Amino acid sequence: MKKKSSKIRLWPIFPIITERILSRKIGRYSLLLHQNSETILKSNLTHPVFEIVARIAAETNTQAFVIGGFVRDLLLQRDNKKDIDIMVIGSGIDFAQQVASLLPGEVPVRVFKNFGTAMLSYYDWQIEFVGARRESYRQNSRKPIVEDGTLTDDQNRRDFTINAMAIELTPDHFGQLIDPFNGQEDLKRKVIRTPLDPDITFSDDPLRMMRAIRFATQLNFTIQPDTLNSISKNADRIRIVSTERITDELNLIIQAPKPSTGFLLLDTTGLLQLIFPLFCELKGTATIEGKGHKDNFYHTLEVLDNVAAQSDNLWLRWAALLHDIAKPQTKKYIPGTGWTFHAHEFKGAKMVPQIFRALKLPLNEKMKYVEKLVLLHLRPIVLAEEEVTDSAVRRLLFEAGDDIDDLMTLCNADITSKNQMKVKRYLENFAIVRTKLREIEEKDRLRNWQPPISGEIIMQTFGLKPSKPVGMIKDAITEAILEGIIPNQYEEAYQFMLREGEKLGLKKIN
Ligand code: CTP
């Protein structure tokens, strides 16, 4: 790392700007408008790294810009995920090292020689430095052939007009917006459009097809018709992209405020069939003897949107996506009864690990959580339809544990009937279930509950080794508590254990 400059010189880097801040509401965001000049106000470039970049740019006579997502989000007045991309005409790595040497404290620089990039973390910000590049891609690989380029070359190779804008950081032009493809106008019109012919942009990097849909979903923008057509045309090229990167984009779509927007776009462009064919199987309805069933594809998307309106939890949203995933496999028409999807919750829960594996989602407690919610997703509804007994509520609490509130959110979201009377009845019954859940929880404290008598105690009492009778007695105690036959207390459970042991011909030895 380079030596720090001994004295911090205050550079007269910022031109005096008289522009008023103007902004306009566009959807969720407030778009920054630049009426008097093409200059971004200094007050908007407050991150300390910009001033240091400007200083190094002047000292080394290098042109430097902030480019991409940071600029887009700045103009949209949207929270940025704390990523800044600095592009310089020259070596990004050398430049990064010089910037790091001027930042207070020890700031390590991670260098990616192969990509010609360098990254530094400054508090919770990631700042990436790259030299301006031209890239060309080969037919069957995402790995580009990279050469040094000009600012224009670099902007040309970016994915969308709204992501191709740069703001100059070189002191003489500090704050100047360079927007060759009219990205500002596209922000105003809420449009996703590629800077070049979309066939070139997408075939250079097919992940961008997913990114187009992801940005449209996150920002509530539309995709310009030529760009959208090109996605349909090039969809097949998604096959050369790694599953991890596809799933990253899919997760961002799922985390958007209204994820169905993205799924419908993935579907109409043909991408969904390629990246998640199992989900497409939910599509369609059938009618026999005048009886139809709902289209589970659109139903699932409605449930997903409903959950998204209630919770930011990505895994709860995955549970919504997968709650009916086994319906196509379990679908049956029973004359006189109609359509059934018997045991789809069991089969669906069993399918979760294979889906997580195929999509390279984590195979950990998140997966277990999704499995559990898929398995239990009908239980509160069934409860609400039948008499809400204490023992049924106890059982549900016992099985759902701490995830009971999420399960109730999922179940509520699952009520998508168009029949208002039906919805009203469900919601009323649900209110009863919730009250009962609260009462039982207060009384019996069954969340994450362990029966008061452990397998250890059973073995010691009857002088048993780990064996079937131990499990039988333990299950009988659990059942008795859940059924309300005995209270959830040690002494009663102990006496019950003695009686159960006796039934099996066991004698108390301790
Ligand atoms: N980029 C691109 N093609 C890609 C990925 C990225 O052209 N496949 C360019 C875009 O100019 C983008 C910038 O690299 O703005 C930074 O990419 P990234 O950090 O992945 O996305 P952001 O645009 O910053 O968006 P977000 O922060 O929402 O991920």
Describe the 3D structure.
With 510 residues, the protein is α+β, with helices and mostly antiparallel strands. It has four domains: 10-189, Beta Polymerase, domain 2 (2-Layer Sandwich), CATH 3.30.460; 200-275, Hydrophobic Seed Protein; 292-444, Hypothetical protein af1432 (Orthogonal Bundle); 455-503, no CATH class. It contains 24 helices and 17 strands. The strands form six sheets. Strands 5-6-7-4-3-10-11 form a seven-stranded mixed β-sheet. The protein has a two-stranded antiparallel ribbon with strand order 1-2. A two-stranded antiparallel sheet has the order 8-9. It is elongated and about 90 Å long. The site of cytidine-5'-triphosphate (CTP) has 13 residues, from strand 4 and helix 7.
Name of the CATH homologous superfamily of the largest domain = Beta Polymerase, domain 2
In CATH, what is the class of the largest domain? Answer: Alpha Beta
Structural class: alpha+beta
Overall pLDDT: 90
**Which spans have pLDDT < 50 for at least 5 consecutive residues?**
1-19
Strand fraction: 5-15%
Strand order in the largest sheet: 5-6-7-4-3-10-11
Quaternary state of this entry equals: single chain
**Alpha-carbon Rg, integer:** 30 Å
Count, helices? 24
Number of domains: 4
Total strands: the figure is: 17
Which second-level CATH architecture of the largest domain applies?
2-Layer Sandwich
> Separation of termini?
70 Å
